[in-house]
Task: structure prediction
Amino acid sequence: MARRAAIVGIGQTYHRSKRPDVNIGELSAEGVRAVLEDAEISIKDIGAFIVGNMELFEGRYQQDMWQADYIGAVGKPVIRVTTGGTTGGTLACVAFEYVASGLFDTVMALGFEKQYEGDTRAGLKTVADPIWNRWQTTGAIGYFARVAHFYMKECGAPEDAGSRVRVRLARHAARNPHAHLRLEIESVEQAMKSPYLIPPLRQFDMCPTSEGACAIIVASEEKASKMARKPVWAKDWTAVHKESVYVRGGRHSTADLEMAASRLFKRNGITKPMEQISVAEIYAPATWAELEWLEAYGFCEKGQAWKLEEKGYFHFDREFPVNPSGGVVCTNPIGATALIRVAESALQMRGDAGEHQITRKPTIGFSSAWGGSGWTVAHLLSSTKD
Amino acid sequence: MKVGIVAAAQSRYGERPEWRPHEMTYLVVEEALKKVGLPFREGYEDIVTCSSDHWEGMTLTDIRHGEMAGAHLGPTEEKVGDDGANGVLLGSVKIMSGHADVVVVTAACKEKEVKDPSVIENFAFDVPYQQLLGLDFTQAAALQAMSYMHKYGLKREDFAQVVVKERREAKDNPRAFNGGNLTVKDVLGAEMLSYPITSMECRPFCDGAAALILAREDKAKALTDKPVWIAGFGSSMDHHNLGDRDLAESNALRRAAQDAYGMAGIKDPVKEIDLFEISDHYSYQFLLWLEALGVCEKGTAAKRLSAGDLDRSGKMPVNASGGLLGGVPRYVAGLNCVIEAFYQLRREAEERAVKGEPLVAVAHGTTGPAGQHHCVILLERGF
Amino acid sequence: MEKSQELLGQERILEVGFKWSAGPYMGKFLTELRDKGKFWVVKCPGCQRILLPPRMLCAACSARVPEFPEGWVELSGKGTLIDWQRIIYPQMDPETGVIRDEPYIHGTYLLDDQVIFTHYLGPEDVDENKLREGMKVEMFMKPLEEREGKVTDIKYFRIVEE
Result:
């Protein structure tokens, strides 16, 4: 029978570009220990594991099998769900469903990636169809260079719009001890000195590759009421996928973002998102994507995001905080990245985000995941049950 | 609230160079939907796909499998990275959570497109310990076969007879390509891969796709007058390091089966279950899995097979379809077991039907070396 | 004195061979390109949108697309330049695994006023400063003996001098 699910534990590693001191099982175990410590329960209490990462990236095959012992999953039901960049978001959805189904009282969702051990760019290139366009794929960088190009063209944004986002994210990451890149980027001028990758996209505009793990524990309403931490309620979640052609009519499409957000907003009576939602941890692999996608999700009108950014609107201590954690541009262990969005949104709901806690009263958190051929997974978390 | 299977479709398994893997997915999804009159892309809320990025040489294979199952700006889609039976499990959970009413579950794999399967399998083993030993799944299976053989005093002939039975029964299965009349001598005399496993004792690599449609009880009854309920499921993970396991036992399967039986209220599997469709990737697995499923006492499955008890016409029909040894690709494997069990309960199994009126069936899938992870699905006739 | 622990790692290259089936849709596109230098697209029988690459299912309207020749349209190989990107950041050639580091240009073209396609803009010495949106382009094929049944049988698109 269907019932409510709540996040009762949040854990992540301190994300870095390289963790040569641990193998991938040990890295995941760090995430698992962190979440168990947060929830103040033992591994014995976990009824099932939902595990995921980018299948091909580190060259390993069937990683959930390999990690079984490290993460304490031996003897338990385990399922691996891998949906690329959206993996972490999907892990959260599946964890909510496992609990909502009534079959499991307490489950753990775990996302992890050890990207330095693989060749991420090579991995990403294999997204392209080997018979059609793999020869020409420029991976994520090419894609986001086009996002930047079109955003400037269609919204009249100046070339420093992306850099402004970068300054905000750097300020946020400096207050988030778990973030990977905690660079001192204090001014737009400084950000604009970053070298071009594919103009107008600069190095600072793009996410890094990180090594890290993130885990959440989801429990039933009954169990949640007995847990150590204030439960964060899973209000709603959805996913939208698209066909496997990235660019139609010479331009990428944001139809998945629009559809996912509008579905969630409609189902939950959200008509004024920046008022009714307290914080957005959105999955944006590039600074320019944050601007375009805030508009695509419907938080603000098309062409408005860069103007609001100029006013500082999206800072953690301002009107509508976006990515107070520093976002994907500062931390990106792909299998975990989307789950980190959920985890950070939950931290905000709980009031536990320490120095990067938003100053607005947290009531509803929006988190999203993006990947594939333009897919979106989105969640609404709530600090109260109703 | 029950979850039911309302329709299914399988491709012909074998070498299929005429289609790309996602094109095969489209054909089976379309076929299954047509059987219950559900419109493509609009008749369901969720899709669970099962494919392997490694086996397709492509990251995010669910981009195309999802697209071909209708995921474009429509139903949500998730990809399970384990054997297809787990897709049925996830699909059922989705319906029970209230988040979907109808779910399409599909799996596809084209093993014949891979030139170096052993290399991929080797990468399933952990670094720095087992991988550098050059293990692949066949070698891990061989270690398990030897363990099992020694613990219970079995012989190679005991394993070889599984192949004889499976291939014989596969002749009646229009999807299987590996049907044939063999003798134990033929099987033992085939090329030795990793002692004691010969080439004939392995599931043959092939291409294929399969799909089924799950629906919530009320919807299921509206879509078909012959629903088959998913009455129980269970899954469990074993240790990864082969040395940490007692390979002669399958504790993970035993636990998974217990969970599935418990959920369905089954106390005595032998009395209450009418047939099994299990994932025998290798000959000895047919016997070892049956013991872990509680069908036979430990070490006795071989004797039961010799006595004919486990044949299609026997007291407890196991793999009346010819099993995986009859020719089913990986990932599709467990889903195919569920589909075969589904057809048996609906009396739609044609030449491979077991006799009588079966009411309860068990399907099984396994992932990982020497059966590290198992998933058991228990089905009940709903009409 | 404490010796810092050596952090041991292991290196391997994952090399797996594949033989991917092209299927009847891509297969036809590629054989026509290779053998006759012809560029085919297909019109969706349901919503009429042009599908490039030709494929089995139109995701937007769910129509099953027929195999060649029903609904297939031959394009002239000519079009207009919509956009271009100079790829500066070193890219690995996915077919060889080798980094190719010379900057090169990707162009986006509108073919026969019907469908967008991306491919190299060549030759190597094309002057980026002279490029303008709307310039006429045409497909330039590799010589017959060099073609392999791949999309790269097209060597590049080039600006048509007026």
